[in-house]
């Protein structure tokens, strides 16, 4: 892999869209972030970009009901998709989110990768699995991030990661699993490495893989 890297600290907010039709022109490269309403998605984006308030965090799960668009450079976008799961929102809103996710995954040509965030204590819940299978069916590579990894001790973290990687084989697609902690700031290198590969169109090799010292 080349030494060229993306500077995620330059990310800026572009727009919020209620659906795919309101997104910027379908050109360049987009990488989407998705997860259950309490998976720490906004915190992960803020940690990645080293910007405390780039993506708004909320004490109320499910507050993010729009597709939020951030740009790291011209034609390079990070997409913050609406949270899903047990959020205390009307069924009508949940169904609208589902339609937006479906439409986005199936029709967005600039989408080159999907980061699915899951609480390490509850990985691969039914809705997470549905989303990943959906992405695999659309030939979209997936990085499954086990967030809030600081909640487990190192031994439990390693065990959970190994089990999750084994479980990911069943998706029969390009699904990589890593641990992540916004609080302790580990897993950032693995996230950046994968995003770089997607943005720069590079094929990873064994030598490229970086194992976290914190797992």
TrEMBL record:
<keyword id="KW-0131">Cell cycle</keyword>
<dbReference type="GO" id="GO:0000917">
    <property type="term" value="P:division septum assembly"/>
</dbReference>
<keyword id="KW-0132">Cell division</keyword>
<keyword id="KW-0547">Nucleotide-binding</keyword>
<dbReference type="InterPro" id="IPR030393">
    <property type="entry name" value="G_ENGB_dom"/>
</dbReference>
<protein>
    <recommendedName>
        <fullName>Probable GTP-binding protein EngB</fullName>
    </recommendedName>
</protein>
<dbReference type="GO" id="GO:0005525">
    <property type="term" value="F:GTP binding"/>
</dbReference>
<dbReference type="GO" id="GO:0005829">
    <property type="term" value="C:cytosol"/>
</dbReference>
<dbReference type="Pfam" id="PF01926">
    <property type="entry name" value="MMR_HSR1"/>
</dbReference>
<dbReference type="GO" id="GO:0046872">
    <property type="term" value="F:metal ion binding"/>
</dbReference>
<dbReference type="InterPro" id="IPR027417">
    <property type="entry name" value="P-loop_NTPase"/>
</dbReference>
<dbReference type="InterPro" id="IPR019987">
    <property type="entry name" value="GTP-bd_ribosome_bio_YsxC"/>
</dbReference>
<feature type="domain" description="EngB-type G">
    <location>
        <begin position="27"/>
        <end position="201"/>
    </location>
</feature>
<keyword id="KW-0717">Septation</keyword>
<keyword id="KW-0460">Magnesium</keyword>
<comment type="similarity">
    <text>Belongs to the TRAFAC class TrmE-Era-EngA-EngB-Septin-like GTPase superfamily. EngB GTPase family.</text>
</comment>
<keyword id="KW-0479">Metal-binding</keyword>
<keyword id="KW-0342">GTP-binding</keyword>
<comment type="function">
    <text>Necessary for normal cell division and for the maintenance of normal septation.</text>
</comment>
<dbReference type="InterPro" id="IPR006073">
    <property type="entry name" value="GTP-bd"/>
</dbReference>
């Amino acid at each position: 892999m080349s030494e060229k890297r993306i500077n995620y600290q330059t990310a800026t907010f572009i727009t919020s869209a209620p659906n795919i039709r309101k997104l910027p022109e379908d050109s360049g490269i987009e990488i989407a972030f998705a997860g259950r309403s309490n998976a720490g998605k906004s915190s992960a984006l803020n940690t990645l970009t080293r910007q405390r308030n780039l993506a708004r965090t909320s004490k109320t799960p499910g507050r993010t009901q729009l597709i939020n668009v951030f740009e790291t450079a011209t034609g390079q976008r990070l997409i913050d998709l609406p949270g899903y799961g047990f959020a205390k929102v009307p069924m009508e809103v949940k169904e609208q989110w589902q339609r937006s996710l479906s439409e986005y995954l199936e029709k967005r040509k600039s989408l080159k990768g999907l980061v699915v965030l899951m609480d390490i204590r509850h990985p691969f819940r039914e809705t997470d699995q549905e989303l990943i299978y959906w992405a695999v069916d659309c030939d979209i590579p997936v990085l499954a991030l086990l967030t809030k990894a600081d909640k487990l001790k190192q031994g439990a973290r390693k065990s959970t990661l190994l089990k999750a990687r084994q479980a990911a084989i069943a998706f029969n697609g390009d699904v990589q699993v890593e641990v992540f902690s916004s609080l302790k700031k580990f897993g950032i290198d693995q996230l950046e490495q994968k995003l770089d590969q997607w943005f720069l169109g590079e094929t990873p090799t064994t030598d490229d893989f970086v194992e976290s010292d914190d797992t």
